[in-house]
TrEMBL record, chain A:
MF term (GO), any: ubiquinone binding
Family of the protein in this entry: Belongs to the complex I subunit 4 family.
Topology class, membrane: Multi-pass membrane protein
This protein's record includes keyword Iron: no
Recorded coiled-coil stretches: none
Compartments in which it is found: Endomembrane system; Membrane
Residue intervals of the NADH:quinone oxidoreductase/Mrp antiporter transmembrane domain: 136-438
Protein name: NADH-quinone oxidoreductase subunit M
Assigned GO CC terms: endomembrane system; membrane
Domain of life: Bacteria
Automatic annotation (TrEMBL), chain B:
A GO BP entry: ATP synthesis coupled electron transport
Subcellular location: Cell membrane; Endomembrane system; Membrane
Name of this protein: NADH-quinone oxidoreductase subunit N
Functional note: NDH-1 shuttles electrons from NADH, via FMN and iron-sulfur (Fe-S) centers, to quinones in the respiratory chain. The immediate electron acceptor for the enzyme in this species is believed to be a menaquinone. Couples the redox reaction to proton translocation (for every two electrons transferred, four hydrogen ions are translocated across the cytoplasmic membrane), and thus conserves the redox energy in a proton gradient.
Gene: nuoN
Organism of origin: Emticicia agri
């Protein structure tokens, strides 16, 4: 069972997606149950994975490897593409996060009335590809999943979104597609520069491989090839490896998103339906961060060491610029979207510090932000469902009418602004600590980043005060709509809040997973 | 004398399939001439054409292994005029497959075309067969003219006003590029003293000329080829012809002549002893930019596909720009798979037009909601044109870009990197217009009453075969690649 566990995570939802598509419309009430059921099974499988994951091992576990494509390249040898899946300390937290968020998203999709068949099959397809992207250990396979997830996302935003859905769907698609083209260039370059030393002896020819395990090791680079560490060819005045690293920064930076490549995010978030926003902020952004760690830093450690200040700079810029923007928003969802930009900046800061606490903190921040941003977008969805209005200024004193809701909001807001014992604090604390201890960053960089903390306290507390405290009042006669949470919403909001508290008080649940792998990871630098 | 005669006899034997093919052409001409209402016998013509195509495809397939056994590389026939090798047979198979698909397309959609069509169609294919097995410029010119003249007729064979306009445009650009080509050939002949561009002396003597003179002459010579490929700067006929011509014919014209041209380009460029990359790069960049940027503004699906083929002509040439063994293989792979993609794209457009009776983008509104199968197919086909996984379009693009990267890595020529970057960015531009078809079909609500629009079984099956191929060849590209490697 264990050796097909990861494939099950990917293909169960994809098969279920096909099933939903093939079922006649008469069963349309069952589609949401299929989504939920599949998400539950996936989450249970992920728990098995989480429990049996060996925290001491640094190598990949639950490895699955099958030969996929072997293509002759004439005199250049063979191009070998494999189907390889596996987890280590870096992607294990992400797989866990995906399991949780997709279940929450499935519950949040419960009241989708418009074309439920298409919606749920796209949703299931998305969940399979996202998990595939996290566990793929072959660059080609990773890229396929990375690209393919754009399609379901494009349709989910474009069909079920708000008023300007078509505009933001195509904007999302084109931004990310351009990013993925940059990644594609690097992928081709890496494959052409790396030799699978294991197989090439057996076949006595060069075997160009996409295997992550070979790409990360300098021993396997063909000397004289463009991206090998000893290459001295210049591209537009930069060494080829620096050039490739920058392309990756742009590619994954769009996905993350980091300022100034973030402009698709607020549009996509504002127009996307609640569950899609939850997925987008909860998981999809993490793929950008995961790509930074695994690919940009993992395969270009020499360049990353010297260019870390660029990454840190982008991180700090995102933290501050995102926070200021969030401060200026009058739309609740837009504010949360910008707070996402700001919080993902900490991931970059932690990673670029190249210290154990920084990188562990970055991974934790990815996880913690996943939980919190999902919670925040659900909160925005609750208001929007009731009133079709999200402007902060339209609501006042909601706590008196919606006490249960207010409790969840308070946990989420305080979690996000960094109250100790909640995930936001742990992630930010460790990334900042890493920043101060970092051998590659000057102290003023993390110092600037702390400004982000102050600002986030500003916009979250301000919003909390404006919307929830004081005398009850709403604009446009929304008073009679303002019912408190129903059971379904309580399950989602309190479930996620409970998780936030658990992971906030016991951050070791994540640090245990990532610790050993990060130790090994940092030895490269 | 006797030697010459026996050589000709020997050559004739190896060209037997083509001779039989020519015989069927004559048969159809005879039937057309002696039957009164030729357009009512389309079932007969369809059966006849289809059976000869399938037969000859099968014969070629057998021939491929036969040739492997008896000849090491290629065999020279008719005193250098014909050069038959495995590569040419492979290309003939591709051409045959596309022709079969087009006839099936005609039949299944129910086009009623006049009997002359089938005769001309077979003659065109014969021209392509000759085109794909020649390294002799005289033969090349004859074959190109044969293909061109048949194409002009095919475009205007369904008489209507817009057809005539497109036909005239096609004829004028075609004639001009033929003239340019002929002039180029005469220059090359003057420089090298030989008409056989596969020969050793051609390479030697061409290298002795000043580089720019040789470059200009070579560019003029491939002018006729670029015209067939609808590559810039000989592209201007494409959108008009595509818009005005019946869809199956366009589908055929958009792939089969290109297949024939690509093999000639492969042979011509590998025989060229001069650095031709600058001109080729300009052609590629021009085709990509003109094709993609113009396609952005189109509101007619067929016109849009017309511009898209201009861009794809650029992509096909990218593989040739790399000009190493792998580059050529990837170009062949690209052409072979692009055949399936483009045929399915035109099939889709036609299936949609059955309902809407128009090729305007706006008329597609909501069709994907009414028929989920069509909506899904539109997504798969369009992302295949973009080059998006999981379709074979991605594999093709990945291979040509890999080849180009490798060529850059080996030579350090900045030009190749520039072409690589521009072509990658063009992929991003193309997303915008390709996705508009599924966008209109799925995102927009249907006009008027949303009626279910069903397809009959044959149409579904035919479409499904294409969709299956597009995805299956992505999962198993080795199927085609192994074949190409052995050539």
């Amino acid at each position: 069972m264990n050796n097909i566990l990861l494939s099950t995570l990917i293909f169960l939802p994809i098969i279920a997606a096909a099933l939903v598509l093939l079922l006649p419309n008469a069963y349309k009430d069952s589609f949401k149950w299929i989504s939920i059921l599949v998400s539950i099974i996936n989450l249970l499988n992920i728990f098995t994975l989480y429990n049996t994951f060996d925290r001491k091992l640094t190598s990949f576990q639950f490895l699955e490897q099958y030969e996929w494509i072997r293509m002759g390249l004439g005199s250049l040898g063979i191009l070998s593409i494999d189907y390889i899946l596996g987890v280590d300390g870096i992607n294990m937290p992400m797989v866990l996060l995906s399991g949780i968020i997709f279940l929450v998203g499935a519950v949040a999709s419960f009241n989708i009335e418009h074309r439920p068949k298409a919606y749920h099959s796209l949703y299931l397809l998305l969940s399979g590809t996202v998990i595939g992207c996290f566990v793929a250990l072959d660059f080609f396979l990773f890229f396929i999943f990375f690209e393919f997830m754009l399609l379901p996302m494009y349709f989910l935003i474009g069909i079920w979104g708000g008023e300007r859905r078509e505009y933001s769907a195509i904007k999302f698609f084109i931004y990310t597609f351009v990013g993925s083209i940059f990644i594609l260039i690097v992928m081709i370059g890496l494959a052409m520069s790396v030799n699978d030393t294991f197989f090439s002896q057996e076949l006595s020819t060069t075997v160009h491989t996409f295997d992550f395990r070979f790409l990360g090791d300098f021993k396997n680079y063909i000397s004289g090839s463009l991206l090998s560490p000893d290459s001295n060819q210049l591209i537009f005045g930069l060494s080829a490896r620096v050039f490739a690293f920058i392309l990756l920064l742009i590619g994954f930076g769009i996905k993350l998103p980091t300022v100034p490549l973030h402009t698709w995010l607020p549009d996509a978030h504002v127009e996307a339906p609640t569950p899609v926003s939850v997925i987008l902020a909860g998981i999809l952004l993490k793929i950008g961060a995961y790509g930074f760690i695994r690919i940009a830093y993992g395969f270009f450690p020499d360049i990353a060491y010297n260019c870390s200040y660029i990454v840190a700079g982008a991180g700090v810029l995102s933290i501050i610029y995102g926070a200021f923007n969030a401060l200026a928003q009058d739309d609740l969802k837009k504010m949360i979207a910008y707070s996402s930009v700001s919080h993902m900046g900490f991931v970059l800061l932690g990673l670029s510090s190249l210290t154990a606490e920084g990188v562990n903190g970055a991974i934790y921040q990815m996880f913690g932000h996943g939980i919190l941003s999902a919670l925040l977008f659900l909160i925005a969805g609750v208001i929007y469902d009731r009133t079709h209005n999200r402007l902060i200024e339209n609501f006042r004193g909601l706590s008196s009418k919606m006490p249960l809701y207010t409790v969840a909001v308070t946990i989420a807001f305080f979690g996000a602004l960094g109250l100790p014992s909640l995930p936001g604090f742990v992630g930010e604390f460790f990334t900042l600590m890493g920043g101060f201890a970092s051998p590659v960053l000057p102290d003023w960089v993390p110092m600037l980043a702390t400004l982000g903390l102050v600002l986030s306290a500003g916009y979250f507390l301000w919003t909390l005060q404006k919307m929830f405290f004081g005398k009850f009042w709403t604009n446009h006669n929304h008073e009679h709509h303002m019912k408190d949470l129903d059971i379904r919403e309580m399950v989602m909001l309190y479930g996620l809040s409970a998780l936030a508290v658990i992971f906030g008080i016991f951050p070791n649940l994540i640090f245990d997973l990532s610790g050993e792998t990060v130790k090994l990871f940092l030895e490269k630098f | 004398m006797l030697e010459k005669l026996s050589h000709i006899l020997f050559s004739t034997r190896l060209l037997l399939p083509e001779l039989v093919f020519a015989g069927v052409f004559l048969l159809i001409v005879t039937i057309v001439a002696f039957s009164k209402k030729s357009h009512q016998r389309y079932n007969l013509y369809n059966t006849l054409t289809l059976s000869i195509l399938i037969t000859i495809g099968f014969v070629f397939y057998v021939f491929l292994s036969f040739l492997e056994q008896y000849f090491d590389s290629g065999v020279v026939l008719f005193h250098n005029l014909i050069y038959l090798d495995k590569l040419s047979i492979f290309f003939k198979i591709i051409i045959t497959v596309s022709a079969i698909a087009v006839i099936l397309h005609l039949w299944i959609i129910g086009y009623k075309v006049v009997g002359e069509f089938y005769a001309i169609f077979l003659a065109l294919i014969l021209g392509l067969f000759i085109l794909s097995m020649t390294t002799h410029m005289l033969m090349l010119y004859v074959a190109i003219e044969m293909v061109s003249i048949c194409s002009y007729i095919l475009v205007v064979i369904n008489k209507s006003k817009s057809n005539a306009e497109a036909g005239i445009k096609y004829l004028l650009t075609g004639a001009t590029s033929s003239a340019v080509m002929l002039y180029g050939i005469s220059l090359l002949y003057g420089m090298t003293g030989t008409l056989n561009f596969g020969s050793q002396e051609f390479a030697t003597f061409l290298g002795q000329n000043p580089s720019w003179v040789a470059n200009v002459a070579a560019f003029m010579t491939i002018g006729g080829l670029l015209f067939k490929l609808s590559a810039a700067p000989f592209h201007s006929w494409t959108p008009d012809v595509y818009e005005a011509t019946p869809t199956p014919i366009v589908a055929f014209l958009s792939i089969a002549p290109k297949v024939g041209v690509i093999i000639v380009m492969i042979r011509f460029l590998s025989g060229l002893s001069i650095d031709f990359r600058l001109i080729l790069s300009i052609v590629i960049i021009g085709s990509l930019l003109i094709g993609n940027l113009s396609a952005l503004w189109q509101t007619n699906t067929k016109r849009m596909l017309g511009y898209s083929t201009i861009a794809h002509a650029g992509f096909m040439l990218v593989g040739l720009l790399a000009l190493n063994e792998f580059g050529v293989q990837s170009a062949i792979f690209y052409v072979a798979t692009y055949m399936f993609i483009t045929l399915s794209a035109f099939l889709l457009v036609d299936l949609l037009a059955l309902k809407t009776e128009s090729y305007e983008l706006a008329s597609l509104k909501g069709l994907g909601q009414e028929n989920i199968l069509l909506g899904l197919s539109a997504v798969v086909i369009m992302i295949a044109l973009v080059g998006f996984p999981p379709t074979v379009g991605f594999t093709g693009k990945l291979l040509i870009f890999t080849a180009l990267w490798q060529s850059y890595q080996d030579s350090g020529n900045m030009l190749l990197l520039v072409v690589l970057i521009i072509s990658l960015l063009n992929t991003a531009i193309s997303v915008f217009y390709y996705l508009r078809i599924p966008f209109f079909m799925i995102f927009k609500d249907p006009m008027g009453s949303a009626k279910r629009y069903g397809l009959d079984l044959m149409k579904k099956l035919f479409l499904f075969v294409f969709i299956f191929l597009l995805v299956y060849l992505f999962i198993k590209p080795d199927l085609i690649m192994d074949m190409i490697e052995k050539l």
